[in-house]
Design goal:
single chain
Length: 259
């Protein structure tokens, strides 16, 4: 798929990674719809990059339907959908039922609902591109946030299933799995900040650039932090040793010791 002249929807694009992706796509000649729950943030992003703002819920069944319908009315078609909106909780077993439900809805079901709506048309056309902003937590884990870790694993699993099922029929899928990125979620990470700071913290633009490179190369996994590949391989090769290391980090966090 040629980017220039194509169309895209980017959810959660009022700030952070979503805003950076929307900006990069617009700079590459893509007609972009910027979506965010925050109306002012969506409009500011759109104005800055020359895109169209369609604010609203990108997670619920009704919200996804409304967004895609409005985007098609504006763009004529959707060639690329970036399911970027995500939430964290900073909670473990103390996470509430609402925390779990919201994480599941935003971090997993938003992707399922968008794909359910878009894929039939893409299959008829013989092409389409779906991007999931997951996390390295979806390949590894995120200490201190059980709902985030579990649902990001689910996001990667769904993206992988989508690619395995429809990739041969022209639908390209990419899963973005960074470590820490300097976004509002990172800034509000509280006690998890010490864990996130174990690796370099990237700017959102670096993630957007990594996505474009992966799209050009036809790669499923987008790893803005290259070391994630090594961590993932290490985890798969010796999971018990990997878990011992993670427990050691958790012990330092629990004890208030420097990492």
């Amino acid at each position: 798929m040629e980017l220039s002249g194509s169309t895209a929807v980017v959810t959660g694009a009022g700030s952070g990674i979503g805003r950076a992706i929307a900006s990069r796509l617009a700079a590459d000649g893509v007609r972009v719809v910027v979506n965010d729950l925050d109306v002012a943030a969506a409009e500011a992003s759109a104005a800055e990059i020359g895109a169209v703002a369609i604010s609203g819920d990108a997670a619920s069944e009704a919200g996804v339907e409304a967004l895609i319908t409005a985007a098609i009315a504006e763009l004529g078609r959707i060639d690329l959908y970036v399911a970027n909106a995500g939430v964290g909780t900073t909670h473990g077993l103390d996470a509430s039922e609402d925390d779990w439900a919201r994480s599941w809805d935003v971090n997993v079901m938003a992707h399922v609902r968008a794909a359910r709506r878009l894929v039939p048309d893409w299959l008829e056309r013989g092409e389409g591109r779906f991007v999931v902003t997951a996390s390295a937590a979806g390949l590894l884990t995120m200490l201190g946030d059980a709902p985030y870790s579990v649902t990001k694993h689910g996001a990667v699993a769904f993206a992988e299933w989508l690619s395995a099922t429809y990739g041969i029929r022209g639908i390209n899928v990419h899963a973005i799995c960074p470590l820490a990125v300097n976004t509002p979620m990172y800034q509000d990470s509280g006690p998890l900040r010490a864990v996130l700071d174990l690796d370099p913290v990237l700017d959102p633009d670096a993630v957007a650039n990594a996505l474009i490179e992966a799209m050009d190369d036809g790669r499923f996994l987008v790893l803005p932090h290259p070391q994630v590949k090594d961590y993932f391989s290490y985890r798969a090769t010796d999971p018990d040793r990997w878990l011992r290391g993670m427990r050691k980090i958790q012990n330092h966090v629990d004890s208030g010791l420097a990492l």
